[in-house]
Fold this protein.
Amino acid sequence: MTAAFGPLAQVAVTFHDVPRAAAWYRDVLGLPLVFETGGMAFFGMGDVRLMMTAPEKPEFDHPASVLYFKVADITAAYATLAERDAAFEDAPHLVGKMGNTEIWMFFVRDPELHLIGITEERAA
């Protein structure tokens, strides 16, 4: 018997200051807070949850993978995050083409310096 995996259900990211991080993801990125419990915060990202937690052991105390959020309008997303004083790494730019689709992206940093990618896929 073969197990079928997917779709992705949850991503865990470690933070030293979960309340500060939760406020940033709620107030700057505008993610919906689903619930908080036991020093953890859970956010809705479509069908995937983002779990924020403190590192349980030293081996879990390191930067997370990059989270990429899809947006319908990257220019509007950039303007919104600028109004919310996000820490930008760069401005929206074309990163590549897949057939008739262009992939646009920019990056911001959260309060603990995790890298967040914002991306739009649009017709070329």
User: Anything to note?
Assistant: The first strand starts at residue 10 and ends at 14. Helices lie at 18-27, 74-83. The chain has a mean pLDDT of 92.
